[in-house]
Amino acid sequence: MWWPFAVACFLHVIGNVHCVFPEVRPDNPEAVMNVSQMISYWGYPSEEYEVTTEDGYILTINRIPHGKTDGHHSGRRPVVFLQHGFLMSASCWITNLPNNSLGFLLADAGYDVWLGNSRGNVWSRKHEYLSLDSKEFWEFSFDEMARYDLPASIDYIVKKTGQKIYYVGHSQGTFIGFLAFSTLPKLAQKVKAFHALAPVFSIQHVRSLPFKLLFRLPKLLFKLLVGDKDILPETAISKFLATEVCNNEITGIICGKIVFSLFGFDPENLNMSRIDVYLSHSLQGTSSQNFVHYYQNFHDIRNVTRAFDWGTRKENLAHYNQPTPPRYTLLSMRVPTALWSGQRDLLADPEDVAILVPQIPNLIYHKTLPTYNHLDFVFGVNAPEDVYNGMIEMIKKTP
Predict the structure, then answer these.
(1) Which of 61, 218, 282, 326 is 20 to 30 A from residue 79's alpha carbon, by CA?
(2) From 91, 124, 153, 171, the catalytic residue
(3) Residues 56/130, Cβ–Cβ less than 8 Å
(4) Which among 345, 349, 376, 386 is annotated as catalytic?
């Protein structure tokens, strides 16, 4: 029954074989573009930077410094930092048309927009001294994304702009925000407000059938299946399928159901003429260890969120100076926080969100959308009306 994940893994394996595919000529050229190219394609200014974390990972950060028509404005613009979710990349914020993409809408509303990329995705696969092919490169999870990636990215942006930021996260982007802002008080002071789309802090009630069945596998079988390096990266064959096989009305729905079954699929809230773009930019990779960490938290008998369990008392003592992984708590997080959650979300399940809400010390807003699934918050054609416009107005009123 976990066939969608099996199909994705199969595509991952054969996509890494050096095969020859026909030249890709997609209906939407953004399907084969990188983030900078996608921004420029729509006539927006694009900048790209590399940021090195304390532990040596080199992350790509993209920037839309202003909208298409207001480059003459010389004053400082408020800064918004957008952080993508699990298995995705910065491209998720600009995948729709400009009038539906949060990255472009913010730029046109007068903001300086920065787009983050977590370690291990297709745009952040470099290290100062570790090889991409080494097992050591992939020994990270959302722990390190919170401890190293967010501080490096936010510190760089604050130094570059001279301003504090507004932070917007989706899915895992909210998760690492919760972890970072509750454990790194100096970092939290650089954040004016935290806007969380499809918020994640625990996954005890996840309803995504592929994930749920995978998480119920025995530990050794699960680890054998996901491996010890990367998982579900962008490959040549995944691009080919997205642009040449899944790019029409009938096959697009079939492909969408297969890939999006991991997250939830609602063709009525998608621009199905852009299914090749959605699919091309949906599986951008992460580490197997990151996936294992989610597995561990799903199985935590006390229903709490913990740091990665290295497997033995000795290893945990070496990493944490205690025999078991420490628990994360939000008690000390003081950043003003707004939530948007969906009743049909298969990953940020309403039950888990209900458990999260009372744990947030400075919750300023929470909107529940009855028909929204996990990806509607970044791909939904109704997202501007349902989410983005209200968020932008809220940001404008934040001192």
Answers:
(1) 282
(2) 171
(3) yes
(4) 345
CA separation for the pair 341, 350 (Å, rounded): 7
Q: What is the pLDDT of residues 86-141, one digit of tens each?
A: 999 999 999 999 999 999 999 999 999 999 999 999 999 999 999 999 999 999 99
Residue 349 annotated to the active site: no
Q: How far apart are CA 267 and CA 253, in angstroms?
A: 7
Whether 374 is a known active-site residue: answer: yes
8 A C-beta contact, residue 225 and residue 214: yes
Least confident of 85-99, 221-235, 256-270, 325-339: 256-270
Contacts of 379 (CB under 8 A, 6+ apart): 92, 95, 96, 269, 270, 278
Of residues 195, 374, 376, 386, which has the active-site annotation? 374
264 close to 208: Cβ distance less than 8 angstroms: yes
DSSP state of 243: I
Burial 200-225 (b: 16+ CB within 10 A, else e): bbbbebbbbbbbbebbeeeeeebbeb
Residue 30 in contact with residue 95, Cβ under 8 Å?
Answer: yes
